[in-house]
Amino acid sequence: MAASAAADRVAAGTAPDRIVVENCAVATVDADDTEYASGHVVLAGNRIESVGAGRAPEGLENVVRRIDATGHLVTPGLVNTHHHFYQWLTRGLATDHNLFAWLVALYPTWARIDEPMARTAAQGSLAMMARGGVTTAADHHYIHPRGAGDLSGAIVRAARDMGVRFTLARGSMDRGESDGGLPPDFAVESLDDALAATEATVREHHDPSFDAMTQVAVAPCSPFSVSTELMRQGAELARRLGVRLHTHGSETVEEEKFCHELFGMGPTDYFESTGWLGEDVWMAHCVHMNESDIAAFARTGTGVAHCPSSNARLAAGIARVPDLLAAGVPVGLGVDGTASNESGELHTELRNALLINRLGAHREAALDAREALRLGTHGGARVLGRAAETGSLEAGKLADLVLWRMDTLAHSAITDPVTALVFGAAAPVTASFVNGRQIVEDGRLLTVDEDALARSTRDEARRLARIAAQG
């Protein structure tokens, strides 16, 4: 029964339909990192009703399904805090570039995207994440070419149809090449148009409720593609509308140099001067941060989307994640756009975050398996402002969870299932639930035809390439 129907039953005073998952290892990722070597999770409608050791309680009413999860680890669903879905159509290009050269190479192609491309690319990006355990995803879509159609609506509809909980970070750019920015002029909006379109997107699509499937954030792209006035007025708009703020920050040494040359200060001081630090803000990357920057983020509660694979792909550097966490900064994981992380998967970022951070100053003490899992679940939910609703397995939270199969050749000889999940090969997803609805079964999506989607994404990628070549 759909979650809405179950909610109607609760309102009518009858018990909701229940799904019982038992005989599994459980990593709750709650405040105490509670784990059960053999435990259960009971879903009631779109909520988690109970989590505990051993089998589920006897005598539960309206149990519509029992899952014997022997050989599995159950965790909260993974939370992706930063992505650019449209880049699914430009994977495998500019593979030997740093960030600025990569952007210059790809902006002319991205500037030709239209509504059908945006929808298909969103479907591809969401599908790859969902089949790998993502239940909540954020997309930072900042490119809105003139005459391209309703790109925001296309992305929102793709997420809705996929069944993934979703935050659309409605991005914008108003600093084109003629104003010293990187994107071509025809790919940017005016200040007024960007603000008006962002407000309209929030009013049309943002749902502030506890179990919201779609939320919207205000998200100017970056200091080198956005005017100071758009940053400042964007922050004012977000706070007037009661939504979160997102942008890129401190990603490369080139960005830091750009900010010093243009604004006379580093990225963090610039963000603070425009109202862009606070508990309602999260920034992608944050690779090049000094002690003062980290202290400012900690003082204000500003969150970080850590994207280890993309940072490596673009040679941006190693983010100081252990120092950010030690200071109390909220940190989650991000896939980033698939033109800088061709795999498009978040569960591989658990492993990459751990391994890459051990190459930094803290070496083997940088992160452990459970800290990596927390980044990808509760940490991400906190960054998106949804830690009260999802990100851990606790009674009353939303029924967003994943069953990872751990008894195959890839993992069966590793005693600790959390270590197996993080250090080992990508674990098969037997089942993934979002809002109490199953969207993945035995590694295959239940909400979309994957083979048909592979064909349509290939066709749209080729169409984009043809249009860009003619441009």
UniProtKB/TrEMBL annotation:
The EC number(s) this enzyme carries: 3.5.4.32
Top-level taxon of origin: Bacteria
Entry keyword Cell inner membrane: no
Single GO molecular function: 8-oxoguanine deaminase activity
Domain Amidohydrolase-related span(s) in chain numbering: 73-437
Keywords attached to this entry: Hydrolase
Name of the top EC class for this enzyme: hydrolase
Gene3D superfamilies: Metal-dependent hydrolases, Urease, subunit C, domain 1
Record-annotated membrane-spanning stretches: none
UniProt KW Hydrolase keyword: yes
Pfam families listed in its UniProt record: Amidohydro_1
Protein name as annotated: 8-oxoguanine deaminase
Species annotation: Streptomyces ardesiacus
Organism lineage string: Bacteria, Bacillati, Actinomycetota, Actinomycetes, Kitasatosporales
